[in-house]
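Hi support team,

I submitted a single chain yesterday and got back a structure, but I'm not sure I'm reading the token output correctly. Could someone confirm the output below corresponds to the sequence I sent? I've pasted both exactly as they appear in my results page.

Thanks,
R.
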Amino acid sequence: MTLRAVLTGILCAGALCAFCFFNDHVVRQSYLVRSYMPLSVFGGLVLLVRAVLWLLYPDGQSLLAPNFTNILFFTVAPLMEISWAAAFIMLNSRRLEWDMAELHAQMEKLASTDPLTGVFNRRRFFEIGEKEVERARRYNRPLSVLMMDLNGFKLLNDDMGHCAGDHALCELTRICQENLRKPETIARLGGDEFAVILPETNLTGAREVARRLHNAILHSPAHVRDQEIFLSLSIGAAQYEPGDRSMEQILQRADVSMFQMKKTIRTLKSPP
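Hi R., thanks for writing in. Yes, this is the structure output for that exact sequence:
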């Protein structure tokens, strides 16, 4: 009976310490849990002292003897049990909140990210774009947008399959991200169409970024099925105008510019 009481006390103290150790990030963020820890640690030390004394002097120590250790234990035991129960409840509640926050962040990422390329999707692009348009209008700052389309994407899918097309899109995204500044946002709008938001950039600067991306793609072949595939982009640029009220208006002008470039490419490739 005595041994069982000692072991039970040690296991309870050890369980609380282990929980706090493996959930350290939860404990640090909860003031109430931290406030219970001194009492819990003190109670655990009392249990440990009782266990050590009983193990060292089994014949001279009784867990019910009216000595200082036992009196101290039975004095703090009710408070200790309450503190342990409250700590476990709050720790589990805090952990549940933490897990729910992580789950919400993951769901938000899935809702705003293109699953193939890992960049922002159309929905997230317009969310960011509208904020940038509002900032450009309020503070009279430059803002530009690039509209990009992968040339020959349909032929690539027809000749080598959709897996090759998907690989080409991923390579295009990777190269673009390596050649864009941190504030510049690239997103996949659908299919082989991409758009880039260029804050603090006028039309001249946007065209320079377009040339840089075009050259980077042109000189970075994608390796598909042991073959080198050279990709090329049609890129259109447009900047924010004082009369613009939405990102859609700027994107439409960039789309028209891109279509003109693609039309020029088709004209150059057509036989005389």
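A quick pointer for reading it: The chain has a mean pLDDT of 79. Let us know if anything else looks off.

Best,
Support desk
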